Amino acid sequence: MTASRPAFAPLVGTFIRLDPMLKSDIPALFSAIGHPEIFAGGYGGGPAGYRDTLDGFTEFAESYYSWDSGNVYAVRLIGGEHDGLLVGTTTLGDIDVPNEAGHIGWTAYDPRVWGTAVNPEAKLLLLGSAFDAGLGRVKIQADALNERSRAAILKLGAQFEGIFRRDRPRADGTWRDSAVFSIIVDEWPIVRNGLESRLAAFGAEPVALRTRQADGTR
């Protein structure tokens, strides 16, 4: 199969849909992920990258996401009382058609949907988009210090490739080591089946938001 650039179009699942994100979505995205615990594990350059105002977050978002080169998505819930609510963002970026490669990253969700069907279905939709377009390898990575994200990536069925040392600067000026994982097309049927099984375990009810306390705990 000859690879092509994955179409940048809405991707619709059972629990969520991924819509091409617009800059007009930034205020809703700030409501969803503008919390210190999102950045604590290394997102957006780590804790020093956190912005506690919409103006500050807008400045961050306009420079952080690959608006012109990546497939940047807004993650929205489907069904129930929160139908259409923006609960996060994710991107299929670094698309390299000649080398049949891409990178799923820049991903963050409202803490109220952590541990729900949102992340596995987002990965199912994005990986399907990538492999259906003929890509052969999709990279997923995290700050090497972020054990929570690393465990979640492994749970998807991705293979750990190693640590890229001194890979990129954090917002505080220190240097991040990146834990790099990948899924290749030969592994996709098994990974897809695993994700579908995880989603089936959630049943048919729409995603319910978990309670978020004033101090950010869940």
TrEMBL record:
- Domain named N-acetyltransferase: residues: 16-180
| One Pfam assignment | Acetyltransf_3
Superkingdom? Bacteria
Q: Which InterPro entries match?
A: Acyl_CoA_acyltransferase (IPR016181), GNAT_dom (IPR000182)
Protein name as it appears in the record: RimJ/RimL family protein N-acetyltransferase
Q: Name one GO molecular function term.
A: acyltransferase activity, transferring groups other than amino-acyl groups
Keyword Transmembrane applies = no
Q: Which UniProt keywords apply?
A: Transferase
The cross-references to PANTHER family, in alphabetical order and at most eight, read:
BLL6696 PROTEIN, N-ACETYLTRANSFERASE DOMAIN-CONTAINING PROTEIN
Quick one: signal sequence residues? Answer: none
